[in-house]
Automatic annotation (TrEMBL):
Keywords from the UniProt entry: NAD, Oxidoreductase
Span of domain D-isomer specific 2-hydroxyacid dehydrogenase catalytic: 31-313
Pfam annotation, one family: 2-Hacid_dh
Protein name stated in the entry: D-2-hydroxyacid dehydrogenase
Classification of source organism: Bacteria, Bacillati, Actinomycetota, Actinomycetes, Kitasatosporales
Originating species: Streptomyces boluensis
Domain D-isomer specific 2-hydroxyacid dehydrogenase NAD-binding, residue spans: 109-282
Record GO terms (molecular function): NAD binding; oxidoreductase activity, acting on the CH-OH group of donors, NAD or NADP as acceptor
UniProt keyword annotation of Oxidoreductase present: yes
Transmembrane segments: none
Family statement: Belongs to the D-isomer specific 2-hydroxyacid dehydrogenase family.
């Protein structure tokens, strides 16, 4: 966008985000709830999906006109990949850069928690039981991280710093990746699972990754391996994971994302043996809302000046490619 008019920016949120104050006077900001989307979208120049858990957009996306740019305050964009938006000329961007290291730290924390049996220690403390136990070393164990994007890469780096031997799996194989050397293709996952002590799902949700961790995948893992999901809930067939835990096929698991959120109080996952449940919070730190706003403000400045945007989603792939297009900023 390079014209001199004041752009009209819709913010899908229950209340105005405080971090957008730098845009005062530069944009006509209008905060709307889902109920007002259908009426407001046709006249908007841009849309900030601050409430990124919404499913309202496919039903209200205008047949003509509408925002030229949509930004979501999330890493995952699967809720935006509906046909009308994918087939439009609207540019979609996400909040890549905010979540990677916090999620990697969460994964490292859960790996340590499972290996060192922190849950067992806490339980014995509550019961005032002094019971000496031995735990596991993580250095030298093997991890397979599924998802070759920034979150998977940050996770691979962090686990490697703990001494784990890490294999990274992405959409396509590469043998000369400048950061990790070799990236395995999804088609190679079956061959990697039997040797993995830790399997981390950090992939975006696409047709290729949906339900990729099912009974067959869990059966390929070595007995006692641990599984962690920080990607998207539908990557996992939860009934199959539950069965693998109950049968002792897996030695434990940690889930931060689920097929239905919030997790129902009656879900059997709450009581699954060896499962650590967290409420989709692995990326959320004390500064995350300010960080999300900062990414949007920076991208708005670029968009207003007609400069390349950060984090442009390839709508056919359903995520931001790791390798930026020529001339675009990293």
């Amino acid at each position: 966008m390079t014209d001199t008019t004041t752009p009209r920016v819709l913010v899908l949120s229950g209340e105005p985000p405080a971090g957008l104050a730098p845009l005062a006077g530069l944009a006509e900001l209008r905060t709307v709830t889902e109920e007002r989307l259908a009426a407001e979208l046709p006249g908007a120049d841009a849309l900030l999906v601050w409430d990124f858990s919404t499913d309202a957009l496919p039903a209200v996306w205008p047949r003509a006109g509408g925002p030229r740019w949509v930004h979501t305050a999330s890493a995952g964009v699967d809720r935006l990949m509906f046909p009308a938006l994918v087939d439009s000329d609207t540019v979609v961007t996400n909040a890549r850069g905010v979540f990677e290291q916090p999620i990697a730290e969460y994964v490292a924390g859960q790996v340590l928690a499972l290996a060192k049996d922190f849950a067992g220690t806490y339980a014995r403390q509550r019961e005032r039981v002094w019971e000496h136990r031995v735990t596991e070393r993580v250095a030298g164990t093997r991890a397979v991280v599924v998802g070759g994007g920034p979150i998977g890469r940050a996770t691979a780096r962090t686990l490697a710093a703990l001494g784990l031997r890490v294999s990274l799996v992405g959409r396509t194989a590469r043998t000369d990746d400048p950061e990790v050397g070799r990236v395995h293709a999804f088609a190679e996952l079956d061959a990697l699972l039997p040797d993995a002590d830790w399997v981390v799902a950090a992939a975006p949700l696409t047709e290729q990754t949906r339900d990729m961790f099912d009974a067959r995948a869990f059966a390929l893992m070595k007995r006692g391996a641990r599984f962690l999901n920080v990607g998207r809930g539908p990557l996992v067939v939860e009934e199959d994971l539950l069965y693998a835990l109950r049968q002792g096929r897996l030695g434990g698991a940690a889930l931060d994302v689920f097929r239905e959120e919030p997790l129902d109080r009656d879900s059997p996952l709450w009581d699954a043996p060896g499962l650590l449940v967290s409420p989709h919070m692995s990326a959320d730190t004390t500064t995350w809302l300010d960080d999300l706003a900062e990414v949007f403000v920076d991208n708005f400045t670029r968009w207003r000046a007609g400069r390349p945007l950060r984090n442009v989603v390839d709508k056919k792939l359903g995520y931001v490619p790791v390798t930026p297009v020529e001339g675009a900023p990293r």
